[in-house]
Write a structure and sequence with these properties.
alpha+beta; Phosphorylase Kinase, domain 1; Aminoglycoside 3'-phosphotransferase, Chain: A, domain 2; 5-stranded antiparallel β-sheet; 10 helices; globular; disordered N terminus
């Protein structure tokens, strides 16, 4: 597997309006638990003391904070004295079928870490709803930097840091797709035959559950085109299903190193190019107009490699033909529009108090249009 690394030239970003990824302050990694997202912490602490592995040494006072930057699953930093762990639980309210599957995420992370060191290790699953109101699991706490459109201050001295973290992520994704599922006892994780076709049909069903007339015609038209032009898969591999920059943690001392990848609750077996499409969907570029991608403000000015280069690097390292990459990118844009509508619907129904979800509905039409443009380029 080859590696495409940048030169050692210094980055000199220009100061323009909006978020400056090299000067603005990154959001805090964790904060107090958000209003409406607290749990019965005393009961949870008792359960964890009784059930976590003894070698974790969970003596000391119990404390809870929240990782506030995600948009779906609830993720908490829990401390027993000096020991830090991470607790993951689904969001409150109505859950889309098959979404936020803590049992699946625990199964993956309790095994995958042995073969892929960028997967955090999961220690404990609780499927008793009396403890936290839903399934939850606890995993190890990884330390590093998550990048959300602003380069962390401790990474700014590195040359070409944006380009380097981008390439590191692409290479980590390709490495993940080369892991043998059987080697870590996950060969039964999914049904790879017909995987992409089921994805297209399944996400259409999810759209129908939350659809509103404003975007229904565009979303249905894009779906029909995707369904009619689905590429044949090249091989079966793990599929993460939500790979993007802010689902990765980087080593602040080495921008070429991905320490961890997060959010494994949709991991399955299928066509690995689904993950490439997802990544491209969240990968804005400086010379394109607003609204065509969902990404943290500032990403387009970080110096990330272009999407065409991302595709080329990935194809070479993973050993895959990427000539149909734009189909997977179009599907990811369309799927992200469905997710945006789901999040907006939950806010509208009162199931979420997170005001960010109110704005998600506005992205649906823009994403559907972007998917349509890519399908036009493919002649699909």
């Amino acid at each position: 597997m080859s590696s495409t690394r940048p030169s050692s030239q210094d980055t000199d970003p220009a100061a323009t309006e909006g978020v400056d990824p090299f000067r603005d302050t990154a959001p805090p990694e964790f904060a107090a638990v958000r209003k409406g997202e607290g749990l019965d912490w005393a009961r949870i602490a008792d359960y964890l003391r009784a059930n976590l592995p003894a070698d974790l040494d969970i003596e000391g006072d119990f404390e809870v904070l929240q990782f506030p930057n995600g948009a779906a699953n609830l993720t908490y930093l829990i401390r027993f004295g000096e020991r830090e762990l991470v607790l993951r639980r689904p969001p409150f309210g109505t859950i889309a079928p098959g979404a936020h599957d803590m049992k699946r995420e625990f199964k993956v992370l309790s095994r995958l870490w042995r073969a892929f060191d960028r997967a955090p290790r999961a220690y404990l699953l609780c499927d008793d709803p009396e403890v936290a109101g839903a399934d939850f699991f606890v995993m190890e706490r990884k330390r590093g930097e998550v990048i959300r459109g602003v380069i962390p201050e401790n990474m700014r001295p590195h040359s070409e840091v944006g380009r380097r973290v981008g390439i590191a992520l692409v290479e980590a994704m390709a490495d993940f797709h080369c892991v043998d599922p059987e080697a870590c006892d996950l060969g039964d994780l999914g049904k790879p035959d017909g995987f992409v076709e089921r994805q297209v049909k399944g996400w259409k069903k999810r759209w129908d559950l939350v659809a509103e007339p404003t975007h229904d015609e565009a979303m249905n038209a894009a779906h029909a085109r995707l369904e009619a032009s689905t590429p044949a898969p090249q091989r079966v591999s793990f599929v993460h299903n939500d790979l993007k920059l802010d689902n990765c943690m980087f080593d602040p001392a080495d921008p070429d190193c991905v320490i961890a990848i997060f959010d494994w609750d949709m991991t399955t077996l299928g066509d690995p190019l689904i993950d490439l499409g997802t990544l491209l969907n969240y990968w804005p570029e400086a010379d394109e107009g607003p609204g065509g991608r969902i990404g943290h403000m500032g990403m387009e000015r970080m110096g990330l490699p272009k999407r065409a280069e991302v595709t080329s690097i990935y194809g070479e390292r993973a050993g895959l033909d990427v000539s149909h990459a734009k189909w997977y990118e179009a599907f990811a844009l369309w799927k992200t529009a469905v997710v945006g509508q789901q999040l907006y619907y939950r806010w509208k129904q009162g199931d979420s108090q997170d005001e960010r979800m109110q704005a998600m509905g506005a992205s649906v039409g823009l994403l559907a249009a972007s998917a349509g443009r890519l399908l036009d380029e493919l002649g699909a």
